[in-house]
Structures are given as structure tokens and as C-alpha cells.
Amino acid sequence: MSRPRSQAEYLARLVPPSVAGLNRRSLLAGAAGAGALLGTGLLAGCGDSDSGSGGDATSVSLGSNQSDPKPKDVVAKVMDGFKTSSGVTVDINTVDHNTFQENINNYLQGKPDDVFTWFAGYRMRFFAAKGLAGDLSDVWGKLDGYSDAFKKASTGDDGKQYFVPASYYPWAVFYRKSVWQQRGYEVPRTLDDLNTLGAQMKKDGLDPIAFADKDGWPAMGTFDILNLRINGYQFHIDLMAGKEAWTSDKVKKVFDTWAGLLPLHQPDSLGRTWQEAAQSLQQKKSGMYLLGLFVGQQFSGADLEDLDFFTFPEIDSSIGAKALDAPIDGYMMARKPKSQDAAQKLLTYLGSKEAADITVKNDPSTLVANSGADTGAYTALQKKAAELVGSATEIAQFLDRDTRPDFASTVIIPALQQFIKDPKDISGLLTSIENQKKSIFTS
Amino acid sequence: MSDLPLIQADHAVPPPAATTKGGRGRRLRLLSRTDRVVITLMVLVPLLLVTGLVWLPAVATVLLSGTNWDGIGPVSEIEWVGAKNYDDVVNIYPPFVPAVQNNLLWLAALFVVATPFGMFLAVLLDKELRGSRFYQTALYLPVVLSLALIGFVWQLIYSRDQGLLNGVFGGDTDWYGDPDVNIWAVLVAAGWRHVGYIMLLYLAGLKGVDPSLREAAAVDGSSETSTFFRVVFPVMRPINIIVLVVTVIESLRAFDLVWVINKGRNGLELISALVTQNVVGEASRIGFGSALATIMLAVSLVFITIYLWTVMREDKR
């Protein structure tokens, strides 16, 4: 072939013999990160709700992460209650729980709803410090029925409140009363008791401790409680804030203890979801399960009544067994709500006894934060859980709520899974965590 | 000497500097105003799209990879950290090495097993068996399903406690959880889909092969096998290149399946999944994730360059 003889031929030769589109597509694939960046930009608009109500206070928008049917229903009922008491309509935008959490940065920097669901902890304080959340000190002036622990958990680094707690749930060791009665098991008070009990359960053909970590976060609960029992609350908080070294003997002891308990855990946990582990407890194949109160969602009817729990046993008598993880869910206000007045009114209502009463009546799987609420409708399990949290000396939120999310998700999750896979090389693992921690916390 | 008139003729059509005025006048007359508007639009619109959707984000990714941006706050507050992210990726980020290995394994598995098998199926289907439409549809169906859905379908099969595989065979292999096993389990699922894709591409190519070639080979006494390898396969060179490129691209951008299964952790690390873990989501390590993405871009560029080089060399011949 020589030079093109006509314009058409010349143009035709500009296209490669194979499909030209492939080049473009491969470039796109190569720039996946770039695409991801774009994607996040687009997602920023997702939470935007145009209620079209402008400045008047006849409606207020709520971004909700309560996407499961039951909690979603409860939110709707609470908002109905607000409408009845104030005459202001609430537009609820429900987003899938995980999606909401993962897009929170873009959501808050875009056009967030006036009020949105969130958690207490590091992240809440972080958003407050970045100016992405509205100051709720005025609202707190009108709230009552909250203990100091809740107020502290709602306070940002600058001493102002940015969060209204609505509900919480403790992490504890759950078991079936019928199984334990039948076999004569007793609630362990110390680590030795737990080991003895586990050995007995193994003999009886049960997996002593149900365990699942496919999603990466459930193992954080185990780490948290062991760290709280061995090193206490303050060390936990400092470790999460990046102030303590992961290579210290204290952290090493946590992993050593965990390694000792691992043989009692259900094997092959990295391929199992928490729902499957909960079902093994429900089917009486495992003896106990360390999880949040939400484990009850996998139980119903008589099985739910059969469910009981105890707090994780004491390991060090000088530390005791009074601290626990009890993450608090609640509401925050956008930095610039369309109507500040309506948003604050809604938040005041959400923190009130009335809203808590509606939640209690409709949802048996959480505990309401307002102590003034009528808890007569609580199930036995809820009452016990409320007592447990009430008697706790310190309440931690949960590993991924108490530390930087980049550290929790990109460092701790793979590290804990690595530990579960290969519990022998603890110092190598801790050195790796410490190196990454230094890089992340200094940036 | 003989091609001298040709050169002169060539020069005469697009005139050199000497006759610029006349040349331009002629070209303007060739293209009407509408033509020019259309051509300008046809060049500008794709150019803008490619620049805006491909080049700008790609350049932005490379630039961001030198920063520690967390996705919050104005662009002016971004801090430059140089090559720190790359240093961290290589030296202190444990999932990186397994991710590279898995991407290579993915490429090898698709290239050695799935692609040849897809081609083999295409050859079989080309024989016009009875019910070939049905087989075609059945084999192509996984391609129509999204990888996310495929991940879910295979989850039902692979689940350790409630899955079909362990249920039927009574084993207790932790298909998705055991880091030594899960990459193979996932490759089966990915290959299942890839086979259908390649099959369809190749079948289309086979249908386009001139039947007289085969007849000629048959008349010359060539066997089925040697007809395929010596006549059909060489004739299908363009399709073969497409299939090769598709295989490479598929293995580089493999992502959705492992993401659905366990977000690309615990034995299923892939570079694309690591990028997403860091950039998208709550973590927002935009700078660090961009460094990973840039590495992926560099790897892709190697393959793209080889491909373009081959294609262009072929063009020159």
C-alpha cells in the first residue's frame, strides 16, 4: 500500500484495522482511579433533596441511613410524630446504610439534607472541626434526660455540641439460655472460666465462640473488648488517637490473648458473614457469640426470648470488666440548613422523650438514649442491655468510630484478617501496623 | 525514474507553498459552510469529551498522587508530599504485593485457560450443531449479567456453611474465606463469564471467514485440525488481536467480582480494589489511592503501547 489516493481512503486509514473503540476503553480502564474520582464527584449530588420549600419553615429534609425495613419504619413514625407536634413536614431521603457511610465526605461537602443520621465518635468530632456540621449547643440547652456520658459523646473538640443521640446498642457475649441450662454451663467471670467453658463446649460438640469476619469489621469488636479488658479505656482511646505505639507490649498482649482464644472461635471465619455466624448460634451449633445487640435481628419469636447475654469476662482484676463498646447512633445538622429554625426544632424533637417513646414502642432491637423515655415496653433483653450500659464505667464507640476511617478501613481490617489467618507472626504484624499508622496520622 | 510522474501528481493535488491561495480557495469550495460546521463539531465534541473525561482525570490522578489530600476542603489546601505515597505503597502497604500477584495470576488464568476455551467453544458452535442457538445463549448469558450479580450467584454456591458446593459434596472448604483457595474460586467465576464473552467475539469472526478458503483446503486434503490452525486461524488475525486485547483489559480492570465478595481483601487483593478502598468510601486517602491508580495506569500503558505498536507496524507493512 502506498499513499492514499482519495480523501475517503485517507480518513479510513486513520482507524486501526481492529476496533478503534478498544483503545479508548483500555485507556479508561487504566484511568480507573481517575474515573473513581469523577464518580465520587457525581455521587456528591445524590443526597441533594430539593424540597422546594426555600426559606419558609414548613418542611425540613432528613438524610437517613436507616435503610433496613424495620428501622426505616421507625424513622417514618418518629417523623410523623414531629409533624403532629409542630406542623412541619419532614422529607426523608433514605440511603443504603453502607453507601451513606461511604459517601459521607461528598455528601457533607455537597448539598446535604438539613438534618442527617450519624454516629458519635471520632468522625463526628472530625466533621465538626472541619466546619461540616452545625453547632447544636442551643438545642442541647432544651434537651433533658441525657446523662453526662451522652453529652460528652455529643461534644466536639471545641466544647460545643454537634450531635443528638437517639439510640445505642452494647456489644456483649450472646448465648441461648436453653442450651446453657440443658448443658449446665455457667456465665464465665474470668478469662480462665471462659477457657474452661470453651473446652467443655468443644467436648460437647459445639463451636464455643461463633465468629465471622468476612466483612472485616466484626473482628474489631473482639479486639476492642480484649484491649478494654487488658489495657483499659484510656489506653484504648489513646491507641485509637494514634498516641500510643502499636508495637508496645500492651498491644502485643492483646493479640497474644486473642491468639490463645482463637482455637475456641468458629474456624474459617474470613468467609462468613455475621448473619451466618448468628444463625449458627440460633441453630445451637455454637455456644456463644460476641456481637452487638443487633444480633437479635437474626432471631425471632421464641428464639428471641431464649437469647441472653453477659459482658465479656474480666482479664485483669486491676482493670475490671466495666468498660464496653456501645456505639451511639443519632442525628447531626448540616452546616447550612435551608431553615436553621426548622432543623433545630426537628433535632430538639428527636432528642425528646416523645421521639424516644415512639422508638421504644416500635423497635425492640435498640435502646433509646433519652433516660426519660418510657421503657416499660422494653423486652427483658433490652432491659438487661440498658442496665449493662448504665453500669458501665466507660463507653467506647467502636474501633472504626473511635479512630480515623482511613486507618480503620485500609490498615486495621487487613491487619486483623491477617492475624486471624496467621496468628503466629504478631510482632511482624504490629510493626506493619505501626509503620502505616505513622504515615497516616502524620499526614 | 518511473515513479517521478506519480510524485508530481501527488504534489499537484495538495499544492505546496507556491500555490497556497489557489489551494485554499479550492478546498473552501469543496467544503460548504455546513460541512465545515459539521466537521468542526465532529472534531470538537469528541475532543472535549476525551479531554474532559479521560485526559483531565488521568492527569489529575497523577498530580494528586503526589499529595496527601483527604477529599475535604478546597483544592488550595492540598499539601504536596512528593513521592511519599509511592514509597508507602511499595514499602509499608502489605496488600500491594499480593494485589500485583493476583492481577498477574488473573491475566495468566484468563489467557491460558478461559480465552482458549472460549475460542474452542466458538469453533464447536460454528459447526452448526443442533441446538447451537441454545448453547450460544446459555454460554453468553453470564456476560449479560453484571459481575456484581455473578458475585452474588457464586456466593450462593461457595458459602461455607450454606452453599451449594459444600452442601452437595459435604465438604467444609471455605471457598471465599481461605486465602489460598478463594482466588481460584473467584477465577472460576470470572472465567465462566469471560469464556462466553470470548466465544461470542470469536464466533462472529468465524462466521466472517470466507467459506471458499475451507473448501479449497478440504479439496487439497487438509484435515479439520490443520485447516483450522493453518488456514482459519491465520486469516482471523484481526479477531485474534481483539481477543488478546480484551483478555488483557479484562484482567487489568478485574474489580467488581472481588469487590462484591469481600471488598478485595484477604487473598482477593487486586490493584483496582485497593484503589477503590482508598479513594472511594469513608477512608478518602485520595493521594495514596491516586498513587495506586497511577501505578495501574502505568501498567496499562505498557500493554496499550505494545498493542498500538503492533497495530501501527502492521499498518506500515
Give structural notes.
- Chain A is an alpha/beta fold and 443 residues long.
- Chain A has two domains: 59-168 and 328-378, D-Maltodextrin-Binding Protein, domain 2, CATH 3.40.190.10; 171-325 and 404-441, D-Maltodextrin-Binding Protein, domain 2 (3-Layer(aba) Sandwich).
- Chain A is built from 21 helices and twelve strands.
- Chain A has helices at 7-14, 21-30, 32-43, 69-86, 97-102, 104-109, 122-129, 137-142, 148-153, 177-183, 191-203, 218-240, 249-261, 274-282, 302-305, 340-350, 353-362, 380-390, 399-402, 405-421, 426-441; strands spanning 59-64, 89-94, 115-119, 164-168, 171-176, 207-210, 286-292, 307-310, 324-325, 328-333, 367-368, 395-396.
- In chain A, the strands form three sheets. Chain A has a six-stranded mixed β-sheet. In chain A, strands 6-7-5-8 form a four-stranded mixed β-sheet.
- Chain A is globular, with a radius of gyration of 25 Å.
- The termini of chain A are far apart.
- Chain B is mostly helical.
- Chain B has a domain at 104-253: Orthogonal Bundle (MetI-like fold), CATH 1.10.3720.
- In chain B, helix 3 packs across helix 15 (286-316), helix 4 packs across helix 15 and helix 7 packs across helix 9 (182-207).
- The longest helix of chain B is centred in the first third of the chain and has 32 residues, at 33-64.
- Chain B is globular, with a radius of gyration of 26 Å.
- The interface between A and B is large, with 63 and 82 residues.
- Chain A: InterPro entries: Bact_solute-bd_prot1 (IPR050490), SBP (IPR006059), TAT_signal (IPR006311).
- Chain A: This is Carbohydrate ABC transporter substrate-binding protein, CUT1 family.
- Chain B: Belongs to the binding-protein-dependent transport system permease family.
